Amino acid sequence: MKARRSKFGQGRFLVFDVESIGLHGEAFAFGWAVLDKGVELQSGSEACPPALAKGTDADRAWCAANLPTLPATCSTPEMLRRVFWRMWLYEKALGARLVADCTWPVEARFLVACVMDDPEERRWEGPYPLLDVASVRLGAGLDPLASGKRLARELPEHHPMGDTRQSARLFLEALGVR
Prior knowledge:
The chain is an alpha/beta fold.
């Protein structure tokens, strides 16, 4: 079934993906892309040393075996969250909506941690609505978990930038933008 074209695809979106120590551990990296009218305006990734993020030994072993090594751009998980939150507030002020794929549990936990770093200041600044790529795909009549073959710019898998670009493509496809 072909996705219906949506006027909402013409907006501004901040698409992001988080890497954490397992599904329920602390985040140590995120990728992001700003889309406007379906065009990627800018993108990047940030990371801190994974050894500083909380998580179990079993989850650390999985990360070591499956995730690419990321250069540290932040010194701690808290700094990583501050960088993300600053970016989110900037894009929110420009009218962006926040988007991630299958937001539970990794991205949702990351956003909660961002708010809990400064709850008095951040409690009302969170993303509302937080748009989930899988839900948008389901609403468009597409398989919410199908991703197909990755494009070259979406590699490597489990790199936050590659995963972000794949999420952005799937989101725009569901909106009928691509």
